[in-house]
Specification:
Layout lengths: L1 H13 L11 H7 L9 E8 L9 E5 L2 E6 L3 E8 L4 E5 L6 E5 L6 E9 L6 E7 L1 H8 L3 E2 L8
Parallel strand pairs: 1-7, 4-9
Antiparallel strand pairs: 1-4, 2-3, 2-5, 5-6, 7-8
Length: about 150
Amino acid sequence: MHKKMAAIAIASALFAGCASVPMESREASNAAKAFSQPSGDNAGLYIYRKGGPGGSLKKDIHINDRCVGESAPKTFFYEEVPGGEEYRVSTESEFSPNILLLRPEGGRNYFIQQYIKMGLLVGGADLKLVSEAEGRAAIAKLEMARKGNCSN
């Protein structure tokens, strides 16, 4: 019984608290929240993480194996990429990265939600493409994290 209680306490500690990452200025965050059309033939990728379980976890996000940044609860990233190409958006998980393949059209914005899920030992992260309406509503409540800081 004591082992079970200890395991529950450890799991609770992993999913409590709040991780922090370097943030962009409020001006940069607000500019990204204008959801402007991407420049030229580019597509805009908004990758975000709401609050919830796993608040103490920071998780790397990559596009084609290039570091976008390390996420924390209530943060987002904005990245413009050339449209019409396939992109491998990945996030670290417990044992191996979870991957979302995407071929965005130029001139459009896309919204990718990163979420934390329970793992065997620690929480892992996964990604899903969401509608523009859902993505805009979520990002309106978040702040933009600084790109380029990954743990791996």
